[in-house]
């Protein structure tokens, strides 16, 4: 009897998986324990072994497609066995809803299948055209959409399965997208610089000369109906340009004849700019995105209001008047699209601040001994050790002594981590990244220094990979080098704490009953009160203070 094979849940945070590679094809014999596919999860690419035996009768998703956990991806059974009833049985609930003539998304799709003959005739699939649809892949655990940074091929070019067809800017880094298909590039759906949501169509590859218009029309029709049946902003994006054009008729027939990129036209419509007033700097005078963004309308000669004060007669004029000179200014501003990184920072930190009950503990550290120790260390160290490196090492050692701080909130349980992975906040042009120094408690200061410098360099050139920023158990954020005395930081989930490090300030301090110059650094610990209590956080800070004030203990 045939059995369905479902997408397994391969990690605690996995909600869907991407079929990276199929190792079996329809008709192949499969034994229990055979490797049938490689699945890309939110953490890594993992092997998927079959727990069933039989002939592979059906494969659902193609390579590169994302599938929700527990969705059917294949069917195993006897050779020649009819499995269609089994697939229908898996979607019984959905089918019942589709039969009802209501406005729910499932019903809309069924209704479209019945009412669309005049638009597209029979349902068209990529397989029926001998083509492969390439969608925007899920390239990080927090990615919801990607921006096409660069296309490496153009329509009409021949593509191989291992070719990198595009560079995609995610919320973390710029990463490569591989075709996983062979043939001719028939269609590009997203212009360079534009964003596409995960799983949206970005390209189609197939046989040269294949007409993919029916497939695109069918996809567009479904998207429009889904937009009418839901109130999601993402679904209404397809009809927004038409609505905007009706409300704000800024585009003219002259504009449509001008040479301009689609993105430039869209921005011009949003800002109410006539393309006829914009000078193009692209090839052949083509108007591109930067031309519209940098365009400034000339000031209109509509400043006739100054005549009002002068209209008073001499009889009406007061005995003493104050002449205020007129100053005519122009209100100007610049708008930039929110980057993928900034969107993710906004979402994750908002969730952290408004979900986790934060409280803050601040302590002062006498850094005289640390300054002297750092000078001695840098005389022999292969790499220059910074104060931040000392803080990371001291925090790691203190976390081993206070495992309650080295913890994570998981909703229905608290995870107490036995390993110490310290995330280090690194400022980059578009926002903030947090690469992780793994097992920091066991590494030397020189080793930590080398890793942090390498992370900072690769972060600024967008070369960090997901493995570099995942898995922290505690985070350090240092603004001392910018002259900040003290600040509070928002916890980086799922960590329970983050340490905010201020600069070293020369201030008067009391030692042995006398006021003498001192070097003081303030540390502020942000704690998730669901995991860490005040006394627990205070004990950790006391240990950290002792380690920094006697840094020889870090070498013991």
Describe how the helices and strands are arranged.
Elements: E1 3-6, E2 16-22, E3 29-30, E4 35-40, E5 45-49, E6 54-59, E7 66-68, E8 72-77, H1 84-90, H2 92-99, H3 105-115, H4 117-120, H5 126-129, E9 132-135, E10 145-151, E11 158-159, E12 164-169, E13 174-178, E14 183-188, E15 195-197, E16 201-206, H6 213-229, H7 240-247, H8 253-257, H9 262-271, H10 289-293, H11 307-310, H12 340-355, E17 358-366, H13 368-380, H14 387-401, E18 407-409, E19 414-416, E20 422-424, E21 426-428, E22 431-433, E23 436-437, H15 445-460, H16 466-469, E24 474-478, E25 497-511, E26 514-528, H17 534-549
Parallel strand pairs: 20-24, 24-25
Antiparallel strand pairs: 1-8, 2-4, 2-7, 3-6, 4-5, 6-8, 9-16, 10-12, 10-15, 11-14, 12-13, 14-16, 17-26, 18-19, 20-23, 21-22, 25-26
Name the strands of the widest sheet in spatial order: 17-26-25-24-20-23
Give the overall average pLDDT.
80
- What helical percentage do the residues reach? 25-40%
Number of strands: 26
Alpha-beta content class: alpha+beta
* Assembly annotation: single chain
Number of distinct helices:
17
Computed Rg: 31 Å
C-alpha termini separation: 65 Å
Q: What ranges have pLDDT less than 50 throughout 5 or more consecutive residues?
A: 93-120, 230-254, 299-315
Sheet with most strands: 6 strands, mixed
**Beta-strand residue fraction:** 25-35%
What is the approximate shape?
globular
């Amino acid at each position: 009897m045939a059995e369905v094979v479902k997408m397994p849940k391969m990690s605690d945070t996995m909600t869907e998986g991407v079929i990276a590679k199929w190792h079996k094809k329809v008709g192949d014999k499969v034994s229990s324990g055979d490797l049938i596919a490689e699945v890309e999860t939110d953490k890594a690419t993992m092997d998927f072994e079959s727990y069933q035996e039989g002939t592979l009768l059906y494969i659902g998703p193609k390579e590169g497609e994302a599938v929700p956990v527990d969705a059917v991806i294949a069917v195993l059974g006897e050779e020649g066995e009819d499995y269609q009833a089994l697939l229908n049985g898996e979607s019984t609930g959905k089918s019942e809803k589709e039969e009802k003539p209501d406005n729910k998304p499932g019903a809309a799709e069924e209704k479209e299948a019945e009412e669309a003959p005049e638009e597209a005739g029979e349902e068209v699939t990529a397989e029926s055209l001998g083509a492969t649809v390439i969608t925007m892949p899920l390239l990080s655990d927090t990615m919801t959409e990607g921006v096409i940074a660069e296309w490496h091929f153009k329509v009409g070019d021949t593509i191989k399965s291992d070719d990198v067809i595009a560079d995609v800017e995610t919320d973390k880094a710029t990463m490569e997208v591989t075709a996983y298909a062979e043939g001719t590039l028939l269609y590009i759906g997203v212009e360079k610089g534009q964003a596409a949501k995960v799983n949206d169509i970005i390209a189609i590859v197939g046989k040269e000369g294949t007409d993919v218009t029916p497939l695109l029309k069918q996809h567009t029709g479904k998207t429009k109906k889904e937009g009418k049946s839901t109130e999601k902003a993402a679904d209404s994006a397809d009809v927004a340009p038409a609505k905007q054009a009706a409300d704000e008729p800024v585009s003219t027939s002259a504009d449509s004849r001008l040479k301009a990129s689609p993105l430039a036209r869209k921005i011009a419509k949003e800002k109410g700019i006539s393309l006829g007033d914009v000078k193009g700097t692209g090839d052949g005078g083509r108007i591109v995105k930067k031309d519209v963004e940098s365009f400034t309308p000339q000031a209109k000669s509509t400043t006739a209001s100054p005549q009002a004060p002068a209209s008073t007669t001499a009889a009406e004029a007061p005995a003493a008047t104050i002449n205020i000179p007129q100053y005519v200014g122009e209100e100007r501003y610049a708008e930039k699209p929110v980057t993928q990184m900034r969107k993710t920072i906004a979402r994750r930190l908002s969730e952290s601040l408004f979900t986790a009950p934060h409280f803050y503990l601040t302590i002062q550290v006498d850094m005289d001994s640390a300054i002297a120790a750092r000078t001695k260390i840098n005389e022999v160290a292969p790499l220059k050790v910074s104060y931040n490196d000392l803080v990371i090492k001291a925090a790691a050692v203190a976390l081993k002594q206070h495992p309650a701080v080295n913890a994570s909130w998981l909703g229905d349980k608290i995870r107490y981590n036995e390993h110490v992975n310290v995330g280090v906040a690194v400022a980059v042009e578009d926002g903030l990244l947090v690469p992780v120094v793994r097992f920091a408690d066991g590494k030397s200061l020189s080793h930590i220094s080398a890793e942090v410098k390498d992370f900072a360099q690769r972060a600024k050139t967008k070369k960090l990979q997901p493995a570099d920023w995942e898995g922290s158990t505690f985070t350090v954020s240092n603004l001392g080098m910018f002259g900040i005395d003290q600040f509070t930081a928002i916890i980086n989930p799922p960590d329970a704490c983050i340490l905010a490090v201020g600069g070293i300030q020369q201030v008067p301090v009391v030692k042995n009953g006398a006021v003498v110059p001192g070097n003081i650094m303030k540390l502020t610990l942000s704690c998730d009160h669901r995991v860490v209590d005040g006394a627990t956080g205070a004990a950790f800070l006391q240990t950290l203070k002792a380690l920094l004030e006697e840094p020889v203990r870090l070498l013991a």
